[in-house]
Amino acid sequence: MSMPIVDEAANVLADPTAYTDEKRLHDALARARATAPVSLVEAPSYKPFWAITKHADVMAVERANRAFTNWPRPVLMTAQSDEMQAAVGIRTLIHMDDPQHRIVRAIAADWFSPKAMRAMGVRIDELAKRYVDKMRDAGGECDFVQEVAVNFPLYVIMSLLGVPESDFPLMLKLTQELVGSDDDELKRSTPSDETMNSLLEMFAYFKTLTDARREHPTDDLASTIANAKVDGEPLSDIDTMSYYAIIATAGHDTTSSSISGGLRALAEYPEQLDLLRGNLDLIPQATEEIIRWVTPVKAFMRTAAEDSVVNGVSIPAGDSLLLSYVSANRDEDAFVDPFRFDIEREPNKHVAFGFGVHFCLGAGLARMEIGKFLAELLPRLTSIELAGEPELTATTFVGGLKHLPIRYSLT
């Protein structure tokens, strides 16, 4: 068993600005994989954690969900934010472990089943056409993220929840503030000790929605959550609000990042774009490669429930581990030529949706949205190029492009 290794390269994982500089990020993570794949990170403002950077190690930890738990620290945040969330009592699906996780996850599972996805297909086709038409009407140039990519998946997930369209702008603002709390452009213009305000405002909104759905249930996901019972008892207010919050944010920002990052990749790799336009049957494979390439969920955290060993390094019980999906999805031992965008990549065992019991509940919906958007866009797209410098979100959790200026021709 090797001695614990500390390599400063892994410190990028605790630096939100590192995710805005892909070369800096990937150079550091490649070094960490090569020299210290399990490295202790002690960064200012954060509680210490072990950075897990190899694909095989991430998978091993995900499989061992009893030895490595989601509670109490599922996401990398500053120590101050950890304490603030604990004080509020937030308990989303990503905070829970089995058996509670399995029971609560089942509440919404039918809404994301293959049968439900087939039923939603026609509506998603309509929305894809609406937003490609919007690109056409923009006159051949737009900021694809702000004008298209953030709105298409927002419309899908909010319609599923039953949020009225008049409230979509508010939901967009709140979800962007939640996942963009480390980004100077996206975060609230308030002191750092008020960063919980976006979440509390979202909770207040969904409390009103819950009351309405309990009094008058309708055929939407909000009604299912509002009227759910566990062991014969309704969910607590905090668990109900937490459920809405994770569905709203995870169902929106991750897909938005994938669609915009995928279009950027196709613009920057024209041979891959030509290949895909010439054979739309490759869309399912292209979708998986886009998700690997973008990896919108950058990392999740786990806590060692017992003394453990990961890749020869001893992890004491109670210590935190960061599973770097970004690093795992560029691991040279898991992917052939991992820094090549390859829409024909097979196999493509990326970990962008996680693995095991916490595999992303909405993975099927995300794949459908990306695939249907490509199926609508590509036959109508005759040219595309970048019209300015893409800009990425500063984050340590969820993120991708926040601006993608493009110039294009559409029929």
> Rough shape?
globular
- Percentage of β-strand residues: 5-15%
Give the class-level CATH name. Mainly Alpha
List the uncertain runs.
none
The total count of helices amounts to 16
Major sheet summary line: 5 strands, mixed
Terminal residue distance: 61 Å
As laid out across the biggest beta sheet, the strand order is 1-2-10-7-3
Helix content: 40-55%
Secondary-structure content class:
alpha+beta
The CATH architecture comes to Orthogonal Bundle
**Order of SSEs:** HEEHEHHHEHHHHHEEHHHHEEEEHHEEEE
- CATH superfamily name? Cytochrome P450
Give Rg in angstroms. 21 Å
Provide the number of structural domains. Answer: 1
Determine the mean pLDDT. 93
> Could you please say which CATH topology applies here?
Cytochrome p450
Beta-strand segment tally: 14
List keywords for this structure.
single chain, 411 residues, 5-stranded mixed sheet, 3-stranded antiparallel sheet, 12% strand, globular
